Amino acid sequence: MIITPNKRLTGLARMSMNNMPIRYKLILHFLLISILPSIGLGFLVNWSADRVIERRMTENTLQLIGKVNQTLEAYVENLQNITYFISFNPEVQDFLKKGTAGSGSRIAIGSPQPESGAEPASYAIRKFLQGFTTLHSEVAGILIVNRRGAYLSNEMYARYPNESLTEEEWYLEAVRNKGIFKIVGHPSGRNVTTHASYKDSEVVSVVRAILDPETGETLGVVLIDLKLRVIAETAQDVRLGKTGYLTVLDPGGEMIYAPPEPYVEKIPRSWLKNPSGAGTATRQVDGRNLQFIYRESAFTGWTTVGVFSLKESAAETREIRFSIVSFVFFVCLLGMTASFYLAYSLSRPIGQLMSFMQKAQSGDLTIRHWGSRSDEIGLLGRKFNAMLQQINRLIKLTERQERQKREAELRSLQAHIKPHFLYNTLDTIHWMARRKGAEDIAQMAESLSRLFRIGLSKGNDIIPLNDEIEHIRSYLQIQQVRYQNKLSYSIDIDPRVQGAYVLKLILQPIVENAIYHGIKERRGPGKVEVRGSIQDGGLLLTVRDDGKGMTAERLLALRRALAAAGTAEPAGAASEPDPAGGKGYGMLNVQARIALTFGGSYGISIESEEGEGTTVTVTHPILTEPLLTKGAGEDDE
Length: 637
Known about the structure:
Helices cover 50% and strands 19% of the residues. It is α+β, with helices and mostly antiparallel strands and 637 residues long. Strands 2-1-7-6-4 form a 5-stranded antiparallel β-sheet, with helices on both faces. A 5-stranded antiparallel β-sheet has the order 9-8-12-11-10. A 5-stranded mixed β-sheet has the order 14-16-17-19-18. Strand 1 and strand 2 form a beta hairpin. The C terminus is likely disordered.
């Protein structure tokens, strides 16, 4: 495997981290858990506050602009309604159709009677128009011009009477719109003035052509001047921050209204490109970063723009940012203090426990952890004390087991003196019987020889499963010769486990009990079945007989004895009185040997029913090679 530089650096960093004392690890982890989230939260809140303030400011400004647009639309809609009222007046209709250029002589403001030569109808129309200007203070003047150039007005008149008003651009614009109301913006260079002498920048003009309903021809045009004062009053009432303001643009980009000393003298329409007619734009003008929030009125075509400096919004966010930074600072300070305290409170008892473990490692098993803590560290200390006590008990138990093992080896040595002499004697009997034609004697001698050879197994404690099965087969053959037709047997071993290894002589005591306490005590012939299989990752060896069985009381007593043998010393288990009434000595020894060799999770389980038979199951680990060496004191020959 090729180790890249990045992997090597990562491994070194992990090793250096693992080698750090636990106190520094805890401090580092606490700091990462407390400070980094606080800093991240601060950045997130700051970013969110900027976004929220910007969004709220834009929404509020658009709402204010919408209110301003509604007010302006109300004024302009009122002017449109005035043009409708004027066009519906019968006297105005008669003037538009029959009036001549001479009928346009002006009248003084407020004159109760018409001047000399003025027609009574013209005087009535002027009084009619004067009523609109009286009721609507935002109207600077109204002028009605027919197609012959004659005009009537209460406030407005032609500067040069000899020049026809029908040639004015505003008149032609109204004719081109064919009766549709039109805002023409600030007047510029027109041949119309008023008695109040309004400047062109102080009024906004609107026009509408009056058409003949029968022929559709233009009968004349109504011109109305709207005082810019009402627009200024509407826009001035809205404040955007400290220095922000509203300005109103016409469809051509010309300013209808702008406050004194605006940030920018002209706002190009190219800056306001949102197709929906509303949006925001940011531009740098004369070294100043400006933001424009705008909304166009669908009725008037005017665009109301809010203009303010980004420094003002930055000043608001700086106050929030200062609060956030202060909060993060105090959280970090508190987190660092808490990190050092928690790291010390956790690492100090761990260090004490570690010193106790070092003393125990050096051989002092009398050391004990003292403390009244109820947390995990206190529980670890109590478990440490229990572990030392258990180690002491196991050391004593091991000493006793070693002593008993040496005694058992000595007894085994005494019982198996010169086993090759026994093998040679049995082989001699075997061949002498065959020479004499006594096949039954020869077969029994051969089975007995195999029984002894496998039983000794050259001193090995772990033997192949095939040898154990061969051993039990020899034993059953001998017993079958003895009991004749009363005993039959079958052996069925799963091929998957035939190469496994097992503890020596674990089946013979069980089969012996099945014959002597099961088959022998029943009426008629009986059968012993020996099976081997794999189940749940373990080796199961089952011995079943259809003999007498046992009562529930004896079964319970035997099970208790087996459970005790699985935890007691082997020699001690065999020296106890038999709880099953003379049955089970061999099984208790097998149980003790298995538990001592492989642990308490392996051993013998038994099922029995009186009159039906008994089933004994041996749970044994699957071994693919021998784990134990020869027993001491046994002959290798």
